[in-house]
Structure formats: structure tokens, C-alpha cells
Amino acid sequence: MRGLIVTKNANLFSIDDGKMIYKVYPSGKTKEEGIYVGDNVEFDECITKVLPRKNLLIRPPIANVDKMFIIIAPLPKPDFMLVDKILIYCDIYGIKPYIVVAKYDLDQTLYDKVKAIYGKYYKVIKVCAHKKDINELTREIEGVCTLAGQSASGKSSIINAIFDDSRLAEIGNLSRKIARGKQTTRIVNLYKLDKGYLADTAGFSYLDLSMVTDLEYQKLSSYYPDFLKARAECKYRSCLHDHGECGVIKYVEQGKIPQMRYTNYLKILDEMMSARKY
Ligand SMILES: Nc1nc2c(ncn2[C@@H]2O[C@H](COP(=O)(O)OP(=O)(O)O)[C@@H](O)[C@H]2O)c(=O)[nH]1
Ligand SMILES: [Mg+2]
Ligand SMILES: [Zn+2]
Prior knowledge:
Blueprint: E1 2-9, E2 12-16, E3 21-26, H1 28-33, E4 40-43, E5 46-50, E6 56-57, E7 62-63, E8 67-72, H2 80-93, E9 96-101, H3 109-118, E10 123-126, H4 135-138, E11 143-148, H5 155-163, H6 174-180, E12 190-192, E13 196-199, H7 209-212, H8 228-231, H9 247-253, H10 259-276
Parallel strand pairs: 3-5, 8-9, 8-11, 9-10, 11-13
Antiparallel strand pairs: 1-2, 1-4, 2-3, 4-5, 6-7, 12-13
Helix pairs in contact: 2-10
């Protein structure tokens, strides 16, 4: 039989074969190889085979992620550099990203601003957990999906609103969360919705691209769909778009590339270059 791992509880796995849930232990071999929530497996009395993965996230540990919802909100102040890093990460790992503007009850203008910056190349949607208005998000849930984004942006509240069960995820007090900055680690579960699954644990409140990808700084700009046309006008093919006769700089000056995307590109470039100097 074949199925999807939806829960890992110590050494016992829950497998969804599309009709029902089986509780199964791994074989010695598959246990040693490692099995993660999101894995597609073959099983009978035990899990006999883990099928090849398209990706594997580390924190939280989830395999075969199809879609990632990057949550930002008016409060805390959005970290757009983190958003850009997650977009790059998703591109590298074959994950479809969404930018989700949460807590729209606090400020209606953020969605329009984000849409203007990202909307041409990425899906931008808005939700409000407090109003239980999360349909724009739930209707996109297909395959294995997970939420990401900075601490206190409202991820747990969205998960709770979706499943309408406040026991699923702990909602933190905003100020306490910021002060502490750290999340507690939890077991990951995939919860089933109509067309797919949503992980009950969110990730990426912080992301160091050089730690989690093989991305070379020379290639960074190729992960910016909004730079593509401009890059054709750079004098040198190896242009890093930080100085010189550069199409990207020209487009930024002409307002065709958002200043913020470019400023954060330079910061990420700088981070990646200094990560190489030991
Ligand atoms: N005004 C407003 N506050 C929200 C909304 N969603 C969450 N919050 C608040 O934002 C804070 C952080 O929420 P939480 O879900 O724990 O964020 P997480 O750290 O990303 O999981 C909490 O104080 C929530 O009550 C919303 O839709 N509107
Ligand atoms: Mg949370
Ligand atoms: Zn250039």
C-alpha cells in the first residue's frame, strides 16, 4: 500500500492512503534512512519504503512541501528581506510561494502596498484571523502546505482559524513573543483539508540562505523575476547589479523595479558574500 505520512509521534507514524489513516512502525531500514511528515511511503505491516522526496524542510521537518504561505502583517513591522529570502528559497526547492497579508483589520493599506511590489510575479492574498476571514488562503491549499514568516505575524492564529480549534496551535502574546524571540519546538502534524494538507507548525522566522542552499551569490539575481528584463541591459553578463553600467540600477532609478526589492537584494548579496569570507 502507499500513503502519505501525516503524523510522526516518536517511532509511530500515521499514514493517510486517501481513504483512511493507518498507524504503522517503520522497518529497521526505513527507520535508519529517516522518515518525515510529508513523505510518501510504501507500507504493509511496517513502512517498507520511502519514495524519493522533492524537498525536505528542516525547521519544522516536513518533506515534499508544495506550497508555502509567507505571512506578514501590519504589526509587527513586516520584514521584507525575510520575505524575499523565503521567495528565493521556495524557488530553489520547487515550492510555490504565496505572500499572505494578515491582520488586515489593523491596516487596510498594507495589502495594496505589497500587491504593488510583488503582485506581478507572486500571488498576494489577504486574511484576517480575528474576523475568521481566511478563505483566500484555504482555497489555495493543495498538496502539502505550510506557513512561514516572522514571529508574531499571526501564523498560529490563522492555523487556529482554519481548524477552528484553539488547541491546535498556541497563540502567543505579541509583546512576549517579541521579547522572547524563540518558538517552542513541537511535533509536526499535517491536517487534511478538502484538496490538501496544512502543517500545524510554521517555520522560517529567520533564514540564512547560505546555510540552507548551495546558492552562489553570483546567481542570486536570477531568483528575482522582476529583475529579468533589466538584467538583459547590464554591460557585463557577470554583473552583480551593485555598481557600473547596470540595467537593474537603471530600472530602479526609473521606478520599474521597486526600490525596496533592490535595497534588500543588495543586503542579501552582501550577506552571502561575507558568508564566503572565512
Ligand atoms: N488585530 C489582529 N491581531 C491578530 C490577528 N491574528 C493574530 N493577531 C495577534 O497577533 C499576535 C501574534 O499571533 P500568533 O498567531 O501567535 O503569531 P505567530 O507567532 O506568527 O504564530 C497575537 O497577539 C494575536 O492575537 C488578526 O487577524 N488581527
Ligand atoms: Mg505561533
Ligand atoms: Zn546589472
